[in-house]
């Protein structure tokens, strides 16, 4: 990776490094992670000879499956910022004897660059680019999509997802209060909080948006009750995926964060006493139909 990591990217890396050993089992064999990965493989629909770029590839669930379908005449390059996740992915690919996939450490928002070209990531090269459950981790959403569009062949497509406004409410609340409790805001839906805004990312990048759709919910919907918000926050503190071990360590910080969390849940509930949190996504499918003008 050419550029030094920003403190924000270092923070993201440390979270996913910690989750890497257990990531594949966090939601169980029929849970969200394996189901979404299977959906991405279906949406990518790779064929023999296909060249695929799997961004934020994590432990390789999508990349390895796509590499099998692409066959020996095709290949997959997976990019992720977490070396621990990449180690798991490489071990899985070797165990499953999938040799036409490679996993490289890098920033998915810095791909039109010298380091990426050295790894075989070049403009006009890929049939499919995927980015599952990670687009909200990108800071410059328009810039990222424009750079990814350049990497597609004419006829190629990029696929990424953004939680709908009524989905993943705990993450949405944490995003809103992060700066007030002194932790890094790792993810953001700012500027991409509606179908229209997500579609605009595609069209502004010169991509066709007619394959855009909204997924079904991967869960029945979690009920978050205002009266139980304190317990909900305590559960989040105990899980690895929400906070790093060195966050919320100052005296009084946990209680302050808990109070802010409860107030935000109350706002979202709008007097109803509870809010249902879904797990569905705007699935942005953008296809490159022609040459893209340099900006």
Automatic annotation (TrEMBL):
What domain of life does the UniProt record list for this protein's source?
Eukaryota
Q: Which CDD domains has this protein been placed in?
A: AdoMet_MTases
Q: Where is the Methyltransferase domain?
A: 48-163
Q: Name one GO molecular function term.
A: methyltransferase activity
Q: Which UniProt keywords apply?
A: Methyltransferase, Transferase
State the Gene Ontology BP annotations: methylation
- Full protein name: S-adenosyl-L-methionine-dependent methyltransferase
Q: Which organism is the protein's source?
A: Hyaloscypha bicolor E
Record lineage: Eukaryota, Fungi, Dikarya, Ascomycota, Pezizomycotina
